[in-house]
Amino acid sequence: MQISIVVPVHNEAENLESSISTFLRTIPENTKQHLREFILVENGSTDGTYDACCRLQQLFPDVIRISQLKRGSYGEAIRTGMLESTASHVCILECDFLSADFVAQSIQAFDQGGVEFLVGSKRHKLSVDRRPVKRRLLTFLYNFLLLRLFTGYPGTDTHGLKAIEGNVAKRLCALAVTTDEVFQTEIVLLAWKTGVAIREIPVRIIEKRSPTVSITRRFPKVMRTVSDLRRSLDRFRN
Questions:
Q1: Which residue intervals of 15-157 are DSSP H helices?
Q2: Residue ranges of the alpha helices (H) in the chain?
């Protein structure tokens, strides 16, 4: 089994090189041997993020690949990385949450079989979530109240780290109709609706920096995503 790691990057010039370099140099050997490629998807940055990506590629030419989008879109960056991945499995990480432990757990779970899609759930009973209370509350409201109320999804989280069997990932990209941040939630719900074997695994989060978008600005946007998700899921009514 091989893994393609996909990381969307937007205006990350200040920390990108140090965080990616540290991750690739310290990842355990028994995990690293499964790593086929590390895809950085630069999307619409207005700082020196793309140049930083190029320097990283020069430093790790055998593993780092760069993809570039003109528009800043987290969801489109994830979709692009999933579609361009060439390994048997794809793992989606975040620039400020490069968890080698999640990658290792994913490899172990896929090796054991019986799962096609892994979600790193911040609300798993074994997870450690050290983010501010307001952010944890928003995660609860979005995943438990909104998604369960309006879609019936039984899981506890749809945002954040994911690992997916490669062919399943590409099939979900073809089915998805949304874009931007809601895309990562849509692929989880589409996987659920189409019978993909999903499992949640715990994660450990210690926030290293404040979010780039405030909760007061994000909440109205979150509310709008519910209608987009229902439009997508209505195609799969029994």
A1: 16-26, 29-32, 49-59, 74-84, 100-112, 133-140, 148-150
A2: 16-26, 29-32, 49-59, 74-84, 100-112, 133-140, 148-150, 166-175, 183-193, 215-233
* pLDDT tops 90 at residue 152: no
- The per-residue pLDDT for range 26-44, each reduced to its tens digit, is 999 999 999 999 999 999 9
Integer Cα distance of 144 and 150 in angstroms: 10
pTM of the model: 0.89
Spatial contact of 4 and 103, defined as CB atoms under 8 Å apart: no
Q: Mention every residue, 6+ apart, whose C-beta is less than 8 A from residue 235.
A: none
Of 96, 88, 118, the closest CA to residue 106 belongs to 118
Tell me the chain's radius of gyration from C-alpha atoms: 17
Q: Which CATH class is domain 3-236?
A: alpha beta
Which residues on adjacent β-strands are paired with residue 188?
Answer: none
